[in-house]
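In the previous lecture we treated proteins in isolation. Real proteins rarely work alone, and many bind small molecules. This record shows how such a complex is specified: first the sequence, then the SMILES for nicotinamide-adenine-dinucleotide.
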Amino acid sequence: MGKVLLVGGAGFIGVYLAKELLNAGDEVVIYDAYLNYIDPAKSNYDTFLHLRLEDIRDKVKIIRGDIRNKARFFTVLKEEKPESVVLLAALPIASASNTYSEDAMDINLHGTVQILESLRQVDGIKRFLYTSSSMTYGNFEYAPADEKHPTNPMGVYGGTKLAGEILTRVYSKQFGIDYTIIRPSAVYGPTDANRRVSQIFVENAIKGKPLVLHDGGSSKLDFSYIEDVAKGFFLALKSPKAINQTFNITKGEGRSLKELAEIIKELVPNTQIISKPRTKAEKSPERGALDISKAKKLLGYAPKYSLEEGMKKYVEYVKSSGVLK
Ligand SMILES: NC(=O)c1ccc[n+]([C@@H]2O[C@H](COP(=O)([O-])OP(=O)(O)OC[C@H]3O[C@@H](n4cnc5c(N)ncnc54)[C@H](O)[C@@H]3O)[C@@H](O)[C@H]2O)c1
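The predicted 3D structure, ligand included, written as tokens:
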């Protein structure tokens, strides 16, 4: 048991991780700027934020602050004296990071440096957990991709995330900060507000709008249910075996967008699935399954939800939460 500072903890992954920590008896402090990069006309951010925080609001301390404001963050760090710090705050959307590239550099890169600079100036932090991404790998050269797979990111997002990993390792070597790096992929489930493909498909199906597959929907992603991912973060944060290690924390399976659409169609009958040629010039890496054997072996990580089971829970949540009304 200890005190954990979740930076970007009011986000999708952060709140689920907060619940894991609270269940284990930890004290949780959240530092978050409430930033959202989705077009307000398409976003239900406020509703999701409200739903997300509802379960934990009375059990955690929430401090509003931006990671780019080093003075503010440093003051919080000195006052709160956490045992560990988890960095989740980022511009977390690959496409938006290409569009708003300066913001991505500013938050994901400059912001990460501000956190590391603060950490080097305090004693007593037992672990810094940096949230990276499977986008650091770029096009998969083989699948399942293990942590030793070459890192050749294709976009600004993956580039800034990889830079953050490198700086995390550098600060660890120079200033003795013990770290753990986690690379998640395609996390899905209740209260995600970043309009990733799983959210778009589920909401479209429930609203009676078609699910659009590009080029037949053959692209594969390692879709990972939020509860499994939060458990993986928790195990990595707590395990001494995770010190100065990097882990893929995903389901460990590559599933195509066509499969995702068909699973949703089973859950929401009458859903229409249509195929269109890809129109966007934007390049996304060809990905698939990540190898999670390292996390299984060292951390005892065991994701429970198949895509079918996770989607069932997600669809039921969206239907019953009333968020689409
Ligand atoms: N969700 C996924 O599929 C996925 C996959 C790979 C990696 N990741 C990484 O996981 C982390 C969390 O992602 P998420 O899905 O929970 O996203 P999210 O947008 O729900 O959460 C991010 C949180 O960070 C906060 N934030 C953003 N910029 C900030 C800043 N400058 N200062 C302080 N707070 C700031 C936001 O307000 C938000 O609450 C991110 O680093 C993301 O890159 C997510």
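Summary for your notes: The chain has a mean pLDDT of 96. The chain has one domain: 3-193+223-251+289-304.
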